[in-house]
Amino acid sequence: MKKIIKRYKFVFIIIIFNLIMLLLKPDIGMNSIETTAVNLKEMLCIMPPVFLLIGILDVWVERETMIKIMGNNSGIVGIVIAFLLGSIAAGPVYVAFPFAGVLLKKGTKFSNVIIFLGAWSATKIPISLFEASVLGWKFMLIRYALDIPVLLLIAFITDKVVSKKEKDMIYEKAKNLD
Q: Per its UniProt record, what InterPro entries does this chain match (predicted)?
């Protein structure tokens, strides 16, 4: 029982928070519950296909292949693949984290995982096309010209700042994601 409570403590906190809000401020509490329900429904629609794709990636792509194309010695090829994987993605950014876990599990270079996450959140092609249609191509291209170098800089700085011990711990946790 303690293990279940520990694992789902944030869910329980949200439920308790919503109930308290419902008692103290019924209109705000009801709005909070409705928002939580909408978000839960959205997540339940998105996550099953995501987990299917993650399962396929985990089973079909050999660890050695992933290390070769995105591992420590992948160079510019690994960077480009990480960037493209993040940019062609669909779905909210919370969907990227299970993918990042599988990439880590498969031996992807730490900075390439950071690039993947950054590209997912900042350079998704479907969102960029919408952005260009609303704000203009010039705005979108200027944003890309600023975002991409900063994204790469953040990835490389993070890779240098995070110690080998911390990276090893992160990779170990990723191996145990099953």
A: DUF318 (IPR005524)
Which pLDDT score, from 0 to 100, does residue 44 have? Answer: 80
Which residues in the chain land under pLDDT 70? Answer: 178
Based on the number of CB atoms within 10 Å of its own CB, is 132 exposed (0-12), middle (13-18) or buried (19 or more)?
middle
- The token pair at 122 is 């900042």
Q: DSSP label at 73?
A: T
Q: What pLDDT is stored for residue 153 in this prediction?
A: 98
Residue 92, amino acid: P
Distance, in Å, from the CA atom of 160 to the CA atom of 36, rounded to the nearest integer, reads 38
Q: State the greatest distance between any 2 C-alpha atoms of the chain, in Å, as a whole number.
A: 57
Average pLDDT over all residues of the chain:
89
Q: Write the single-letter amino acid at 13.
A: I
Contact 90/99 with Cβ under 8 angstroms? no
> What secondary structure letter does DSSP report for 8?
T
Which residue reads 């960029």 in tokens? 128
Q: Which residue has the tokens 């694992």?
A: 7
What are the tokens at 80? 């480009």
